[in-house]
């Protein structure tokens, strides 16, 4: 197996007496979709926040592409290709879908666009933004205001914004939350299509999506990883069923 793209070692984080991340170690390999599942409040979002650089762990290490990034700020991680797909709140509702993505492209490219003349620069920006919209199947909605898009389309746009930073590893926090069956099916197909281009870590409550998409699943309960393996292994694991899947069935 190839060297891990992401290595998490003994990561811990507490809020007062509450251990939200408790000695977490896991590997994410290039090309895989690695799902993190667990009951509400298990610490999934807090874990992703420590991987994206939004939150400092109390102890432990995060290595990305062989480099210790534990203390790197989020912007530096994004430049290295480690991006988090943000929640809908970060979309700008009064701007078009294309503008929302163009802003993300500009943030990534930064100064490199200053070398172009204004008109050429704008065209180059829009071309890249349009590519990202096409990647998520939203090109026909480019001129619509983000605020006027349906919930599922906003989720697609959120993904286009993340893809515009050209990530190697994309951290996805409940990308299907709030979507209907049809929207979820479309997004699942989209992630399946993207898997050849980008490695993904996926937090998701939709077990159907997890078992369809994930190559590996890690199960988090009270901040600890209690099991890690293929979806089939996790489905058959008694501790996992008791801690989580059983709860769903109940
Ligand atoms: N800033 C904070 N201060 C104190 N406690 C916090 C803080 N952020 C999160 N927590 C607590 O940490 C625990 C883990 O929260 P987290 O949001 O990471 O869980 P989760 O697994 O993502 O949950 P869900 O599936 O409901 O989104 C929860 O008990 C939560 O109340």
Automatic annotation (TrEMBL):
Pfam family, one: BCA_ABC_TP_C
GO molecular function annotation: ATP binding; ATP hydrolysis activity
Gene Ontology, cellular component aspect: plasma membrane
Residue ranges annotated for the ABC transporter domain, each copy included: 6-247
Keywords: ATP-binding, Nucleotide-binding, Transport
InterPro entries: AAA+_ATPase, ABC_AA/LPS_Transport, ABC_transporter-like_ATP-bd, BCA_ABC_TP_C, P-loop_NTPase
Domain of life: Bacteria
Official protein name in the record: ATP-binding cassette domain-containing protein
């Amino acid at each position: 197996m190839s060297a891990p793209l992401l290595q998490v070692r003994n990561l811990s984080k507490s809020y007062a007496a509450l251990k939200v991340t408790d000695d977490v170690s896991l590997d994410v390999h290039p090309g895989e979709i690695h799902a993190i599942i667990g009951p509400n409040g298990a610490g999934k979002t807090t874990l992703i926040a420590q991987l994206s650089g939004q939150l400092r762990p109390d102890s432990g290490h995060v290595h990305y592409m062989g480099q210790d990034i534990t203390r790197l700020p989020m912007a530096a991680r994004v430049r290295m290709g480690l991006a988090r797909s943000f929640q809908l709140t970060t979309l700008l509702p009064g701007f078009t879908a294309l503008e929302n993505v163009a802003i993300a492209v500009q943030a990534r490219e930064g100064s490199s666009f200053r070398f172009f003349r204004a008109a050429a620069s704008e065209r180059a920006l829009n071309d890249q933004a349009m590519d990202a919209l096409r990647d998520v199947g939203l090109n026909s909605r480019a001129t619509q205001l983000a605020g006027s898009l349906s919930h599922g389309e906003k989720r697609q746009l959120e993904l286009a914004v993340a893809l515009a930073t050209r990530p190697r590893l994309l951290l996805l926090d409940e990308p299907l939350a709030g979507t209907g069956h049809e929207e979820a099916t479309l997004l699942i197909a989209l992630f399946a299509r993207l898997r050849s281009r980008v490695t993904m870590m996926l937090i998701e409550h939709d077990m159907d999506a997890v078992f369809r998409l994930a190559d590996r699943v890690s199960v988090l309960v009270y901040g600890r990883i209690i099991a890690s393996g293929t979806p089939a292994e996790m489905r058959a694991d008694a501790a996992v069923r008791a801690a989580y899947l059983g709860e769903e069935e109940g």
